[in-house]
Amino acid sequence: MFSHCTHTFSRHGLSALMCAHLLMAAGATRAQESAEATAQTSTSKGSSYEVWADVLFGPDGRNLAFHLPDEADLPTAFADLVKRQLQSARIPSVQDSDGSPATFRTGVRMDYRLLPASNPEENSQVQFLGLAVAPLPVKRYLASYPKDVSHQPGWEGGVKATCHVSPEGLCQKIDVQMLPGMPESVRRFAKASFDGWVFEAQRINNRPVEGEVSARFALHTRDEYPRDFRIPAFQRFIQGR
Q: How does strand 171-177 pair with strand 198-200?
C-alpha cells in the first residue's frame, strides 16, 4: 500500500483537475429540474477527488496491467502521476478456492485531496491519501431527491452505504449506516441510488466473484429565505422600484 504523499502542480493543471472531477460527478447524477437541492457521492469532505482504475494483480500481488477508464478527462501530468503510483501498487496475494495463489482483477480507487496555494505566486498541490480495492463502478445513479428534505432550506447530511456486489456486477444487498435522527427517506434515497449502480465484478483467475464497495451519499439543500420576511410584499415591491 502507499503512504500519504504530496505533489505540486501548476494552477492551470489543478483547474483542469477540478473540471475533470466535476465532469465525473456530473456523469453520476440525474437531472432534477424541480428539486431545489443538489446531491453527490464522495469519499471525504472538502476538495477531495477519487480516480478509479481497472487493475490485474498477479499471483504474487504485483501489478501486471492496468487501465484508467477516465484518463482522457485528467490533466496529463496528473494522469502520469496516477499511473506511476499504480505501477508500483502491490496487494496481499489472493488465493483461489483450492488455496493456490491466483490472479486478481479488480477496481482500484485512488483518493486525493487538493491543497490550494496560500498565495498566487505558489503552485497548488495534490496530496495522495491512499487506495482501496473494490468492484469497478461502470454506471452510477442518483434517485429522486427526498421531498421532505428538499423542503428544508439549509439542510445537509449524509449516509454511508455499502453495496454487496454479485458476480453479475449488481447490488444484491445494500446496507446503510446513518446517525440517529436522520430521516428515513435519506436511507431510502441511498438504497434506491446504489441499486441503480452497475459494476465490473472482481475476478479470481478470470472467474467473477462477489465483492463489496462503499460510498457516502451527501445531500445539501439551498439556504434560501426572503430578503426580509418582516416587510410586507407591497412595501418590498415599492423599495425595489
A: unpaired
Instruction: Give the mean pLDDT of the chain.
Output: 77
CA-based R_g, the chain, Å = 22
DSSP string, 41-106: EESSSSSEEEEEEEEEE-TTSBEEEEE-TTGGGS-HHHHHHHHHHHHT-B-PPEE-TTS-EE-EEE
Across-strand partners of 110? 51, 131
Phi, psi of 205 (to 5 degrees): 50, 40
Statement: residue 155 has pLDDT above 60: yes
Closest CA to 55 of 65, 42, 41, 46: 65
Q: Which residue, 149, 228, 215, 137, is CA-closest to 181?
A: 149
Cβ 127 vs Cβ 44: under 8 Å: no
Q: For residue 5, give the C-alpha cell.
A: 504523499
Measured in degrees and rounded to the nearest 5, phi and psi for residue 9 equal -135, 155
Q: What is the mean pLDDT of residues 13-22?
A: 35
pLDDT value, residue 182: 82
Count of H-run helices and E-run strands, the chain:
5, 15
**Predicted local distance difference test score (pLDDT) of residue 42:** 39
